[in-house]
C-alpha cells in the first residue's frame, strides 16, 4: 500500500502567497499514484476564523482523483488555551461542517489508519478525553492489524523525555499517555507535520516522521530543529514493515516565512515570541 502525506499547505483565497505550490504537488501526486492521500493539518492560513479559507482549501483537495483524509492543524481549528485562537466549540464545528470529521479510522488491508486531532491533546477541551477514549477503543479493536497514526503536531521535538515545549509538541503527561498506547498496540508509524522541518526517527518499534510543508520554511524566526528545511511531500509504503521517503518535489518554491510574515500573519505584539506563534 502506498500513501502520500502532505502537510502545512496554508492555502487561502485572500492571502495566496503559497497557493502556487499546489499545482506541482498535485501533479506529483498524480505521478506517484498513491492508494490514499493524508493531509496532516494546517490546510489553511486562517480556517480557524475564516470560513472561506476552509471552503477554498477543500476545493483544491477535491481536485485529486484519489481518496483524501485530513486532520486539522492549529491554523484550522485553533491552538492551546491562552493563545490568540484557542480551540473551542465554534472552531471545531466550523471545521466539521466544512471539512468533515477532525479524526478518522480507516482499515486498508491489514493496516488501520488513524487520524488524530492533536490540537485537542493537552487542551483541556471537553472533547480531549472523548478523543482519547475513542483512540483506546480504536486501537483495542484493531483485530491484529498494524497501525499508522497521522496527526498535525509531533509527540516531541528533540527528545521523548523533554519538558513542555509549549507551542511545538505535546505536554509531558499527555505525551506519556500516548507513548503508552503506542507501545501497547503495535503502532508502526506516527507521522506528523507542524514544525516546517522534515525528519525521520524512531521510538522503540515505532517509526516517527515529520512531513515537510508544501508552503514555507522558517529562517531566523525560530531556532534550528532536527532534520532539514525543504518543501515537498512523503511517500509511505506500508507492507509488512514501513518505509518512508521524504521528497523535495520539483517545481515547488521554498518560500521563506521571514520575508512575508507581516503580510500573511500580521504581528500585533512586539514580544519576541509573537512572530513565531502567529506564524505557526
Describe the protein's topology.
Blueprint (H helix, E strand, L loop, with lengths): L1 E5 L15 H11 L3 E4 L11 H11 L6 E3 L3 H4 L11 H10 L5 E5 L2 E5 L10 H15 L5 E5 L21 H13 L2 E6 L6 E5 L2 E5 L5 E2 L14 E7 L3 E7 L6 E2 H8 L9 H6 L1
Parallel strand pairs: 1-2, 2-3, 5-6, 6-7, 7-9, 10-13
Antiparallel strand pairs: 1-11, 4-5, 8-9, 11-12
Main traits of this protein?
about 280 residues; alpha/beta; six-stranded mixed sheet; five-stranded mixed sheet; about 20% strand
State the oligomer: single chain
Strand content: 15-25%
Runs in which pLDDT lies below 50 for 5 or more consecutive residues are 268-280
User: Which structural class is indicated by helix and strand composition?
Assistant: alpha/beta
Q: What spatial form do the alpha-carbon principal axes imply?
A: globular
* Topology pattern, helix = H, strand = E: EHEHEHHEEHEHEEEEEEEHH
Placed side by side, the strands forming the largest sheet appear as 4-5-6-7-9-8
Radius of gyration: 17 Å
How far is it from the N-terminal to the C-terminal residue, by CA? 32 Å
The biggest sheet, with number of strands, parallel, antiparallel or mixed sense and barrel status, is: 6 strands, mixed
CATH class: Alpha Beta
Number of DSSP helical runs? 8
Within CATH, the superfamily carries the name: Metallo-dependent phosphatases
**Mean pLDDT level:** 93
Amino acid at each position: 500500500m502506498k500513501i502520500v502525506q502532505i502537510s502545512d499547505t496554508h492555502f487561502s483565497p485572500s492571502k495566496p502567497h503559497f497557493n502556487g505550490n499546489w499545482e506541482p504537488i498535485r501533479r506529483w501526486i498524480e505521478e506517484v499514484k498513491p492508494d490514499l492521500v493524508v493531509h496532516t493539518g494546517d490546510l489553511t492560513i486562517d480556517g480557524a476564523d475564516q470560513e472561506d479559507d476552509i471552503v477554498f482549501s477543500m476545493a483544491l483537495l477535491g481536485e485529486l482523483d484519489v481518496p483524501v483524509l485530513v486532520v486539522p492543524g492549529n491554523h484550522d481549528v485553533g491552538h492551546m488555551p491562552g493563545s490568540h485562537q484557542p480551540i473551542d466549540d465554534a472552531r471545531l464545528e466550523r471545521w466539521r461542517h466544512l471539512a468533515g470529521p477532525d479524526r478518522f479510522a480507516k482499515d486498508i488491508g491489514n493496516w488501520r489508519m488513524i487520524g488524530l486531532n492533536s490540537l485537542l491533546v493537552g487542551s483541556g477541551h471537553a472533547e480531549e478525553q472523548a478523543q482519547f477514549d475513542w483512540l483506546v477503543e480504536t486501537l483495542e479493536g484493531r483485530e491484529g492489524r498494524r497501525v499508522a497514526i497521522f496527526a498535525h503536531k509531533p509527540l516531541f521535538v528533540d527528545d521523548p523525555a523533554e519538558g513542555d515545549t509549549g507551542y511545538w509538541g505535546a505536554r509531558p503527561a499527555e505525551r506519556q499517555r500516548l507513548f503508552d498506547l503506542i507501545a501497547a498496540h503495535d503502532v508502526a508509524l506516527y507521522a506528523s507535520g507542524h514544525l516546517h522541518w522534515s525528519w525521520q526517527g524512531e521510538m522503540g518499534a515505532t517509526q516517527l516522521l515529520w512531513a515537510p510543508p508544501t508552503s514555507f520554511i522558517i529562517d531566523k524566526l525560530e531556532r534550528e530543529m532536527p532534520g532539514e528545511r525543504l518543501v515537498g511531500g512523503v511517500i509511505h509504503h506500508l507492507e509488512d514493515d514501513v518505509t518512508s521517503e521524504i521528497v523535495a518535489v520539483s517545481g515547488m518554491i521554498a518560500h521563506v516565512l521571514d520575508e512575508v510574515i507581516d503580510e500573511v500573519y500580521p504581528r500585533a505584539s512586539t514580544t519576541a515570541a509573537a512572530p513565531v506563534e502567529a506564524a505557526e
